[in-house]
Amino acid sequence: MDATISGDRGEWADKEQSVADKIADYNNMPGTETEDSEEYELLKDFMRRLPDKERIALELYYPANKEDRKSFEEIGQALGGMSKVGARQVVNRAFGKLKEFAKEYGY
User: Which of 18, 29, 55, 84 has its CB 3.0 to 4.6 Å from that of 3, i.e. a possible disulfide?
Assistant: First the structure.
């Protein structure tokens, strides 16, 4: 799976469910039977393994309530006043790490 971010809000360029889709699912699952799935538990573990800045950036980019989604500019401000480009780089780096974690488990 190859997930890439472009633009201020991000566009996903793959046909299979991307890491971003998994995160969106992760943030929208409470109370569902899927919550107990192996993939869900792995994703929670992957998120915990990220450095705080990267985890926070992904949580802001993919909040539980889609209307609360933050732009890269807003994420940059929340991360200490970094630029929009800097925030996008943090999100990209975090997705790269999630992909590497997933490869360790054969996904």
Answer: 18
